């Protein structure tokens, strides 16, 4: 069920970020992505603390991405990792081309 939930939030033309609102790395990911003008529906933040299956979702992240931590950032249907990975893509100029390739930016 956790796998189905995660996959239901992913899309070929969107960015999905699984977060916990009190996590400073999650806050960093939210702030970084909000700098960009996404088309409506192409950026989603999913609060895991609002779910009673949070632990099993994080177990699925460990199994599928190699890390249980949040944020888990998916660009399209591919997990690029967490905040450090997202920040590195942004700083080296690779994030915007990826987002444009998805058709997620205005």
Q: Which structural traits does this protein have?
A:
Glutaredoxin, globular, 106 residues, alpha+beta, 5 helices, 4 strands, single chain
Topology diagram in text:
Blueprint: H1 2-9, E1 15-19, H2 24-33, E2 43-47, H3 54-65, E3 72-75, E4 78-81, H4 83-91, H5 95-102
Parallel strand pairs: 1-2
Antiparallel strand pairs: 1-3, 3-4
Helix pairs in contact: 1-3, 2-4
Describe this structure in words.
By secondary structure, this protein is an alpha+beta fold. The protein has a single domain (2-102), classed as Glutaredoxin (3-Layer(aba) Sandwich). The protein has helices at 2-9, 24-33, 54-65, 83-91, 95-102, and strands at residues 15-19, 43-47, 72-75, 78-81. Helix 2 runs parallel beside helix 4 (83-91). The N and C termini lie far apart (33 Å). The model has no long low-confidence stretch (mean pLDDT 97).
């Amino acid at each position: 069920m956790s796998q189905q939930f995660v996959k239901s939030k992913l899309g070929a033309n969107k960015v999905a970020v699984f977060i916990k609102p009190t996590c400073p790395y999650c806050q960093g990911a939210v702030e970084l992505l909000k700098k960009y003008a996404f088309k409506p529906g192409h950026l989603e933040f999913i609060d895991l603390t609002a779910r009673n299956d949070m632990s099993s979702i994080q177990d699925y992240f460990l199994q599928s991405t190699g890390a249980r931590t949040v944020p888990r950032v998916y660009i399209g249907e591919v997990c690029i990792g967490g905040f450090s990975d997202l920040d590195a893509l942004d700083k080296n100029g690779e994030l915007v081309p990826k987002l444009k390739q998805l058709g997620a930016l205005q």
